[in-house]
From TrEMBL:
Pfam families from the UniProt entry: PRA1
Claim: Transmembrane helix is one of the keywords in the record: yes
Keywords tagged on the record: Membrane, Transmembrane, Transmembrane helix
Membrane-topology annotation of the record: Multi-pass membrane protein
PANTHER family noted in UniProt: PRENYLATED RAB ACCEPTOR 1-RELATED, PRENYLATED RAB ACCEPTOR PROTEIN 1
Keyword Transmembrane helix: yes
UniProt cross-references to InterPro entries, sorted A to Z: Prenylated_rab_accept_PRA1
Record family assignment: Belongs to the PRA1 family.
GO-annotated cellular components: Golgi apparatus; membrane
Protein name (record): PRA1 family protein
Amino acid sequence: MKVDEPQGTITMEVPQHTLQKVRNQLLKAVDIRNVRGISQFFGLGEEKPFNVPGREVLASRCRKNALFFSANYAISAALVGVVTILLNPFFLFVLICLGGFWLYMSSATANETPENPTKIMGRTVTPEQRKLGMLGVSAAVIVVFGGSILFTICSASGALAISHAILRDCPSIREEDELGFLSSEGDQIADTV
């Protein structure tokens, strides 16, 4: 065994088309055209819209509901985020300050000329470098001042989505699944056409 070889390093390259395909599928899943109505989401007018499934249908129901209601889950996560942030005035103040910081930096970029470039600590900084720095500072400030709030938003919205996906028994999903729209075979057929 050679001494200069790195130990325990695993590298894996994901093809660019695979990342693009995953990105497109996520965007298609949370598309605004896929938002289901409130009556369908909550089962208003149905006899038993929510029930505890048996073990044999649990995974299938969760998968189908996650696909069918994904745009609704994204909207509910956004609403949970807005309510949580509004209930935390200090974090709201931090976000307003960050917005002011971004506004100031964008106005500094608008006033920049080749004769008068923006300098930070004596070094000329390009707009791309400023944007990258602002993203880093913003992410650090949000994590430091709002880490627990972000955790609350993610856990509450995740719990709501998972509980809805488990308990919601939607007849229209069963009808669409009988036609093959929610199965992986339907995706394979659609890819070949």
